[in-house]
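Handout, section B. The chain below has 160 residues.
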Amino acid sequence: MKVCHTEAMKILKELDQRKQQAICTEDMYCKVSYREGEAKTESDYDYFATREEIAEVDKRAMKIRAELTKANCTVKVNDELTICEALIYLAQLQSRRMQLEDLAANCQLSRRITPNGTLEYTECTYDVKKAKLDLQQVRNEINSLQMAIDRANLNNYIEV
């Protein structure tokens, strides 16, 4: 069955939820407690069936993840970058955005009165206006790249 990358990621999320549910159910029903002299309550828990279900989910998830990984290394989001490269670059841009946000939040020149009553000036050794422009440029690039990645994930298909 062919699905787009976005559908494959949703399938992976559902498989992960199914596995977590099996593990939670196992945790709740793999032991029974009873008092001395009382009859032991029987449990519907089946160790082998649970192992089989988890193994089946893991096998299917592994196949989908492998196909997504292959596709991410070959599918281009633009003329230059594959999805894999774009995701790495996106993380780098996010880091750059955080740095620029800190720099752009400063005042070019600020002053304060010190505890002993004298004026103290603090001046940025860079152009705060340029940092704000660079920040906007990085934000725009992040948005464009995210849309390109989303478009590639919706328009490209893998076999699952």
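Note. The chain has one domain: 2-159. Compare this with the example in section A.
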